[in-house]
Amino acid sequence: MMLATASQVLARNTLPALVAFTLGKDTSLRSWIAVQALPHVTPQTPDEAALTKRKKRIAVAALVVLLGAEFWVISQGSQVVFESFLQTFLAVMIASHLFFFFTDLSKAFKWAAFRMNVSGMLVYRPVPGFTSKPKAFIAGLVAVAMTAQALIWSPTLVGLSLVSTALVYRFTGASHQRTLSIRKLLICYLVFVGVVTTLSGAMVYFLIKQVGPNGEIDVEVDVEGEEELNKPVYQLIRVLVSAWYCCPQGLLISILYRFDYSQHVSRQRAVGVDVAHLHALEPIEAPTDARFYRQLSTTGIIVPTATPRGFVRPYFFTALSSWLSCEIVLAAVWAKFDLQREFQNTAAYDLAGFFLSIPVVVGAVLVTAKIRGEFTDLWTYREVWSVPADKVKGIALLLGEGEVEAGTSGEREEASLPEYEDVTKPEEAEEEVPPYAVFSETKA
Predict the structure, then answer these.
(1) Which of 4-13, 163-172, 424-433 has the highest mean pLDDT?
(2) pLDDT confidence of 96, banded at 50, 70, 90?
């Protein structure tokens, strides 16, 4: 009985996240490799600047309308109106995530990465001529059918698991904006866990103080409101909460996977191995006939469909195995003390898994870096996904000791790159360099 309960808990909560982490880290690495070769943004023309302002005003107006609609729904106090609004929101979000999840698995689209002018934000568009319409149609049909089944009829365990997998996968494999640092990520996680643990301890102390003479807590808790929602909607909200608690671990695992690849490329270059064969990135010109594409950089990069293999991944496996060990231990404890029945209407399992796995994963990763002698490399690793035009003129990369500053004329100044080949002038380099660069900060 205990084994069956633990297996059920793992299948419902852990297995979807494990599949999402495994698939999402490959997607994030391919996107990161493509982003390295993208040119930085250029100043906008007056017409483009005016179009950008109009788009911002439209976005603000749409946000105001959305918030106003939400406020109106809440102010009505009608259960029917609220459920209709919630079902519509869940239907759009779940169907879109399932659609892109299935299209990524079937490779229905071939994506190209571009930069928005001025803002430098990353956008992805399907490559013309490389879209499989039958695959996209089937993916959309399955996504809509699963969403309708989950919202109209009682969702199945398999359906809920696929929804959870799609949500976590989309977050884990998504591109990031601006910069992402392992150091800041680890510190933020630990601070958040520490603050919440302190507040939780204070709450427990408050509850203990409320224990009456008969041994019962003199605090009334209303849990009947949860049952007011219909069962399918409530179960989908539970899936969203469960997926949210897995996203921080997925973000950390994916960046550690990219760090492993960065270390692999650095080691290959250090011993004089030509790494140009790792990826042959294809550039693509942004279409000029569509108004939207006028705001893009002139050249995009097609995201590679093949993921690099055959490199050592100590930090990825350390983080993944640490997280999985915490989930297995938690599932065993949950089944041993029959906590599933006690907390069946709460997100206690997901919350416990989050606060248990984060310190263990962070500690295991830091110990691994210390043992391998790569603590400084890990602690200073930083990825630059996009830079606004007002901060970078021309091309600016993060290589070696830090950021290469742009000159006053808009051209990048020469910089010392002790650990890399000369990537500022590829035609004068002694060795052929790859069409991309793995960015990291390494302090001596």
Answers:
(1) 163-172
(2) very high
**DSSP labels for 199-245?**
HHHHHHHHHHHTB-TTS-B------GGGGGS-HHHHHHHHHHHHHHH
Q: Using CA atoms, how far apart are residues 314 and 312, in angstroms rounded to an integer? A: 6
Q: pTM to 2 decimals?
A: 0.78
d(CA 28, CA 307): 10
Phi/psi of residue 303, nearest 5 degrees: -70, 125
Which residue is associated with the tokens 């991309």?
436
* pLDDT of amino acid 121: 77
Closest CA to 323 of 248, 249, 242, 241: 249
Amino acid type, 29: L
Q: Over the chain, what is the mean pLDDT?
A: 76
CA gyration radius for the chain? Answer: 25
* Residues 260/363/338/236 CA torsion (nearest 10 deg): -50
What does the pLDDT read at residue 201?
82
Copy the structure tokens of residue 314. 């100590």
Structure tokens at 413: 């100044």
Q: Which amino acid is at 1?
A: M
Is the model's pLDDT at 407 over the cut of 80? no
d(CA 116, CA 132): 26
Cα separation, 252 vs 182, in Å, equals: 8
394 conformational bin, left if phi > 0, alpha if psi -120 to 50, beta if neither: left
The span from the first CA to the last CA of the chain, in angstroms, equals 56
